[in-house]
Amino acid sequence: MRILVTGAAGGIGTLLRPRLARPGRTLRLLDVVAVEPGEGEEAVTADVTDAEAVLAAMRDVDAVLHLGGHSLETAWERILHVNVHGTQVVLDAARKAGVRRVVLASSNHAAGFHPRTAGEAPDDLSARPDTYYGVSKVATESLGSLYHDRFGMDVVALRIGTCETRPPDLRALSTWLSPDDCARLVEASLAATGFHLVWGVSANTRRWWSPDGGRAIGYEPQDDAERYAPELIAAHGEPDLADPAHARLGGSFCVQELGADL
Ligand SMILES: NC(=O)c1ccc[n+]([C@@H]2O[C@H](COP(=O)([O-])OP(=O)(O)OC[C@H]3O[C@@H](n4cnc5c(N)ncnc54)[C@H](O)[C@@H]3O)[C@@H](O)[C@H]2O)c1
Q1: Is 201 near ligand 1, meaning CB less than 6 Å away?
Q2: Phi, psi torsion values for 3, nearest 5 degrees
Q3: C-alpha separations of 90 from 59, 115, 143, 185, 229 in Å
Q4: Which among 50, 71, 107, 108 is the best mutation to test ligand 1's pocket, defined by most ligand atoms within 8 Å of the CB?
Q5: From CA 206, how far away is CA 145, in angstroms rounded?
Q6: Confidence at residue 31, expressed as pLDDT on a 0 to 100 scale
Q7: pLDDT for 242
Q8: Based on CB atoms within 10 Å of each CB, which residue in 71, 154, 165, 230 is the most buried?
């Protein structure tokens, strides 16, 4: 099996590479930044908006994990070109090459403007982006849905929370996706059929997002950010829900200037 991983030089790509390695599996790592391939890996330096290069990278590929693009807020033109157009280019190249399975990195920021409520938000919580970046993730999900409906491709769009080695802040006690759970989620997504929107989150005690969509594709998270709670709460206190960083699902993205780089 060969998996094309776009944006492989980034944070999640780097965390996933050793975790997705399997005998008989090749990871084809595509990024605008050069990547040094290890055992069981191949590297392609290309831009996801370059249709010809992306189609060439689909050769002998069985599945695509599309992570490449801007992962934070930036100017609308860049978001539109790389995140929206680039995702269309990747999906269309997969279609042309006969690659039936695509896993897309969406984000919680596709629905980040929803206020936090007492219950767990469903995986298909309606689009309510908090930034231009969030708009691009809504478009990512829509493109995935379109390519599933039109061409029967199996597409999972992951509404990823906070995927880092450890929860970086209080909000991440709810939104953390551990690297090991991220790999479990990607493996489940690679085996799923149909179209799915799924929250990308660990089994956090304080999670706000439903586990149902993950369960439906066989994802069973095993990590819980709560073990980091004592030190984060000792440093910052309990989350204040009146604080914009905690009032809405998207946290501080909801109050960030649109189009401004962090
Ligand atoms: N890390 C998180 O917590 C998180 C949360 C929600 C969603 N996501 C999404 O997951 C994906 C991966 O996130 P990450 O944290 O690894 O981001 P990252 O910024 O660390 O990595 C993104 C990678 O994409 C590459 N890239 C940028 N433009 C490109 C282009 N035009 N062509 C090819 N490659 C390009 C970059 O060089 C980089 O290596 C992103 O789509 C991001 O929006 C991540």
Answers
A1: no
A2: -115, 125
A3: 13, 32, 10, 21, 39
A4: 71
A5: 30
A6: 99
A7: 84
A8: 154
Residue 118, pLDDT > 90, answer no
- Residue with the nearest Cα to atom 43 of ligand 1? 71
Question: Which of 196, 157, 204, 155 lies closest to 177 in space, CA to CA?
Answer: 204
CA-33 nearest atom, ligand 1:
37
- Given a contact cutoff of 8 angstroms between Cβ atoms, the answer to whether 36 and 91 are in contact is no
Is residue 71 lining ligand 1, measured as CB closer than 6 Å? yes
Looking at residue 188, the DSSP 8-state letter turns out to be H
The pLDDT of 178-195, averaged and rounded, is 98
Q: Are 44 and 68 in contact (CB under 8 A)?
A: no
Lowest-confidence region among 150-164, 175-189, 226-240: 226-240
> Does 11 contact ligand 1 (Cβ within 6 A)?
yes
- Average pLDDT on 46-56 reads 98
Distance of CA 32 to the CA centre of its chain: 18
Q: Which residues are catalytic?
A: 133
Q: Helix axis angle, 11-20 relative to 179-191, nearest 10°?
A: 70
Statement: 2-255 belongs to CATH 3.40.50.720: yes
Alpha-carbon gap, residue 185 to 197, rounded angstroms: 12
| DSSP letter string, 96-161 | HHT--EEEEEEEGGGSTTSBP-SSPBPTT-----SSHHHHHHHHHHHHHHHHHHHH--EEEEEEE-
